Amino acid sequence: MTKAAVVVFPGSNCEHDAVSGLEVAGATATLVWHTEQDLSGFDLVVLPGGFAHGDYLRPGALARISPVMDAVSAFALRGGPVVGVCNGFQVLTEAGLLPGALQKNNHLSFNCEDSMLIVANDRSSLTRGVAKGTRLSIPINHFSGSYVCDDETLQRLQDHDQVVLRYEVNPNGSLDDIAGVCNEAGNVVGLMPHPERACSNLLGSTDGLVLLRALVEASVFA
Which residues belong to the active site? Predict the structure, then answer.
């Protein structure tokens, strides 16, 4: 069975949701403290949401220097699937594993609502086998979720098919309606919406399982 590592930083608060979602999707998931320096026993890695290190300085800026991030980088370099959700997305950009940055929402208020996403890439570790144009209802929960990058980076993202998910209705001012991006290889993905919170009809949607099951399946081919 696929073994998933869910990295926990001081201030993470979505780690148990991530474990639950991954297990529903067919993996076994283990919480891994941020001081861990070896992820070689795992098939995929998830950086969950929350407020790593209290978001002091800026979201993700301190978490990027945690010991585990060297192991995450090495895991990604080997082609292993790595997904950062919300605060985890911020950490991946701060660590240089994904291009761009996340800044405060354009309306300067916290967003906590369901969002409709459009799948823009069907080759990433989070969307492999999910048809482009697929609509997914997945909640957002963030204050600094507006994706930004320079014009050259945006052009590269578009040219190399690195935009993974877009908002149908932009909730935060993200450039090009971007909700998630991947690296050029497609194995590292960051997204602001929370698929782990859309894994049960009791939570309003099971659309998150479409992404998490694709992630678990991608780990088999990594």
Answer: 86, 194, 196
Q: Which residues contact 103 (CB under 8 A, 6 or more apart)?
A: 144, 146, 148
Tokens of 180: 């998630």
Where are the chain's structural domains?
3-221
Per the structure block, which two tokens stand in for 46? 């998830």
pLDDT band for position 203 (cuts 50, 70, 90): confident
| Residue 66 DSSP symbol | S
How many Å apart are CA 208 and CA 83, to the nearest integer? Answer: 13
List, for residues 126-143, the tens digit of each pLDDT value.
999 999 999 999 999 999
Q: Which residues contact 2 (CB under 8 A, 6 or more apart)?
A: 26, 27, 28, 43, 44, 216, 219, 220
**DSSP string for 166-222:** EESS-SS--GGGEEEEE-TTS-EEEESS-GGGSSBGGGTB-THHHHHHHHHHHHHH-
Q: By the 8 A CB rule, do 58 and 19 touch?
A: no
Provide the token pair at 25.
């999707």
- Provide mean pLDDT across the span 163-190: 98
What residue has token string 């594993």? 97
Let me know if domain 3-221 sits in CATH 3.20.20.70: no
* CA atoms of 7 and 18, how far apart (whole Å): 10
Q: Residue 220 — very low, low, confident or very high, per pLDDT cuts 50/70/90?
A: confident
Nearest to 82 by CA among 171, 180, 177: 180
